[in-house]
Write a structure and sequence with these properties.
Elements (H helix, E strand, L loop, with lengths): L3 E8 L17 H10 L3 E7 H15 L7 H9 L2 E4 L11 E4 L3 H10 L4 E5 L2 H9 L5 E7 L11
Helix pairs in contact: 2-3
Length: 156
């Protein structure tokens, strides 16, 4: 059975996004290499709609520029099929993405039973919380950003 890996970037004080007033989340070469390597055993990305809105266009743009420092990661993310979970959007507006509106627990259990490589979820707070609360995550990858943010969004 396929495994679901959850990968999130978090600050030292447990925040997971810049909207809380954090520093930018630019990655160094080691983090980029880890992210590329973490995709080696993956054949689909799982995303919430909010993350998909930003992530898919950003990495598609990176993948179009072979001179971009993050090209290898951008190309890999762009090429992978993406499964976007949403209760508000009814039709996929993203390249190489399938939209699922159903019960997330049921749908992910169904995906995990299919033949193939592992699945990787890039977490926004709401999406990641839903995955965790439903016991769907098999492996956690929290990449720490060495900054502190004042207003707490999520804590571990």
């Amino acid at each position: 059975m396929r495994k679901l890996k959850l990968q999130m970037h978090v600050t030292l004080d447990g925040f997971s996004n810049m909207e809380a007033g954090g520093d930018d989340f630019k990655w160094d070469g080691k983090v980029i290499k880890f992210c590329v390597d973490n995709l080696a055993d993956v054949d689909a990305l799982l995303l919430g709609r909010k993350t998909a809105d930003d992530l898919i266009p950003f990495w598609d743009e990176v993948a179009r520029n072979k001179k971009h420092a993050d090209y290898a990661l951008g190309k890999r993310i762009s090429d992978l099929p993406k499964i976007v979970f949403s209760n508000s959007v009814k039709e996929s507006k993203w390249k190489n993405a399938t939209l699922i509106n159903g019960d997330i627990k049921y749908e992910i259990k169904k995906l995990k039973k299919r033949k193939g490589k592992n699945l990787l979820a890039y977490g926004g707070v709401s999406f990641a919380s839903t995955l965790i609360e439903n016991g769907l995550v098999d492996a956690f990858y929290f990449l720490k950003k060495p900054v502190f943010i004042r207003k707490r969004i999520i804590s571990f």
